[in-house]
Amino acid sequence: MRIVFFSDIHGNLEALEAVLKDIESQNIERIYCLGDLVGYGPQPQEVVQRIRDLKIPTIMGNYDDAIGYEKKSCGCAYNPGRETEVGDESLNWSITNTSAAAKEFLRSLPHTLEFEEEGVKFLLVHGSPVDHLLEYIRPDTSSERLQKVLERVKADVVVNGHTHLPMVRWAMGKLVFNDGSVGRPKDGNPKACYLIIDVVQQSISYEFRRVEYDVKSTVEKITEVGLPAELGLVLVLGKGYEMGQSKSKNTIDFKI
């Protein structure tokens, strides 16, 4: 079974379309989206509609929650000052420029998805198994904390998003993946990122795919709609306020 996981599109339709085109060439059997369709980018409405049209199983991210319910905060770990101002401005703009139908769809998204393939149990969350929307599980999250959030998880593989940093870690006899970000990478690589996991007779192989897209077009749209220029700079640099790295491809013999 060849499965795709992607998340954190953040209103970046150019990046989403590039990823969808790349997926078509990968002989994929199932696709899942781990949330944050909206926020930051200039086309939240179009991204929501694209995911709806394709009927991709999707879980809720913190931005989907904040915009769907028209909240005053996304719950992000912003630094005080300009970073907070940009985040708040982006959130308010996205609320204004997302239809009632799109907000209803965002509110309808589940917080988790679970399934089993080839005897391997998967759990999908945006943040962590403990705090589905807001907790960041990063490459540098302590082993003690990782063990704590996994202690009641029955799945063999956990896939999350939220940090925008592609990652794979092993703890408590489980694999923990972060699928990176389609529309707002933060690992120093501006290319869109998504994750492929192959499961064959309880053996797992994985690949983080990096896909070029028209960053310039998205930056121009950010300017045209009046969003802060800093949002475009993050896309050009491929990093925000955090950095991380991960291997691009590997195989793990994972026997239950």
From TrEMBL:
Its EC number is 3.1.4.-. It comes from Mesotoga prima MesG1.Ag.4.2. Its cofactor is a divalent metal cation. It comes from the Bacteria. InterPro entries: Ap4A_hydrolase, Calcineurin-like_PHP_lpxH, Metallo-depent_PP-like, Pesterase_MJ0912, Phosphodiesterase_MJ0936/Vps29. Keywords: Metal-binding. Belongs to the metallophosphoesterase superfamily. YfcE family. This is Phosphoesterase. One of its GO terms (cellular component) is cytoplasm. Residues 1-200 form the Calcineurin-like phosphoesterase domain. One of its GO terms (molecular function) is metal ion binding.
